[in-house]
Amino acid sequence: MEKTISPLRPPTHGNFITVLSIDGGGIRGIIPGIILGFLESELQKIDGPEARIADYFDVIAGTSTGGLLTTMLTAPNENKRPMYAAKDIKAFYFDNGPKVFPQDRNCSPFAQATKLIKAITGPKYDGKYLHSHLKDKLGNTHLRHTLTNVVIPTFDIMQLQPAIFSSYEVKNHAHFDALLSDICIGTSAAPTYFPAHNFDTKDSTGRVRKFNLIDGGVAANNPALIAIGEVTKEIKRGSPNFSSIKTAEYGRFLVLSLGTGSTKVEEKYTAEEAARWGIFGWLTSGHSAPLVNVFTQANADIVDFHLSVVFKALDSENNYLRIQDDTLKGEVSSVDISTKENMENLAKVAEGLLKKPVSRVNLETGNLEPSKHETNEEALIRFAKLLSKEKYCRETSSLQK
């Protein structure tokens, strides 16, 4: 007889606060998508075929393409279950990636000149397919409807500050209860790639809040720390969901942080090159946008540095698992090359990453160094057991109460 999968009980009934964080990275979202497919398959081995990622995490955070993944995993379908199983994410990218990032392989001088003019006068892609597809799939689904708490960072260019769409904030600030489609469009509006996105929301009194958003990656490409911060605020507010947790103890957090790959080993740019760049060079050199690459990678790494230090200092190193590949080279390092060949290569990167040793950041060099203790696959199997055990603990604890 198959188990019935019930909603996750609040952390006050258990031992951990479970957090899933997914970086931004465009088409490279295929990498965390495949890793999540493996984790979900392990959870299904324990708890049955209906188990889904959203059933096990108190909060799922995602930026840019990570925000799309977060929404796919938590937006409800007509049966109040996740719209997508993790195993379907790969197909989503393969089916829609070429339409979101249409490829122009015309190398004639005229075509190249046209591209150059377009790069100066507007974003690389118009975003029309992405916008219409998200609105069609998500319809009237709002932030408050997600099946577990979510945190999706964006950046408001009118206010010049982050706008964090958080399930925890909706009950206190109704203007954040936006349509999930608008949130997804906003968090993925990467400068130079897609146009900025604006929309309005209204609170219960009819007061209007205007949002003018670009990609959350400019503020938090790795949203793990933002997610932990949102939980910490709930604890400080005295939320009954955290009544057994008096302080934000990092030892109580169980964090899975998924990257979309980086090019550190490739040593992409040199100071000699960058010294010659003006505005145009910072936005177009190396067939990419170096400025965008720099700030998204920088803020992703600083979060990993911080969490690695804190979890290690508190003897909770095994509670924090970061899965990232810093050896990407060539086309697989791009955020928008959506050819079938490149997407298949990204899938191979993800499958290879599962077999690699767990890596931890070297705080002196910034590079990832392999652990001798377990592979990423083994670590995910361990996490699946911990997540299932935590869910069971909360269910039995609440029954006893």
UniProtKB/TrEMBL annotation:
The EC code for this enzyme is 3.1.1.-
Gene3D superfamilies recorded for this chain?
Answer: Cytosolic phospholipase A2 catalytic domain
Alphabetized GO MF terms: monoacylglycerol lipase activity; phospholipase activity
Span of the annotated motif DGA/G: 215-217
Q: Does the keyword Lipid biosynthesis apply?
A: no
Q: Where in this protein would one find the motif GXSXG, according to its record? A: 62-66
Q: Which UniProt keywords apply?
A: Hydrolase, Lipid degradation, Lipid metabolism, Plant defense
Q: Which residues form the active site?
A: 64 (nucleophile), 215 (proton acceptor)
Q: Which parts of the chain are coiled coil?
A: none
Q: Which InterPro entries match?
A: Acyl_Trfase/lysoPLipase, PNPLA_dom
Cite the PROSITE patterns for this sequence.
PNPLA
Q: What class of enzyme is it?
A: hydrolase
Q: What's this protein's family per the entry?
A: Belongs to the patatin family.
Give the comment on domains.
The nitrogen atoms of the two glycine residues in the GGXR motif define the oxyanion hole, and stabilize the oxyanion that forms during the nucleophilic attack by the catalytic serine during substrate cleavage.
What this protein is called in its record is: Patatin
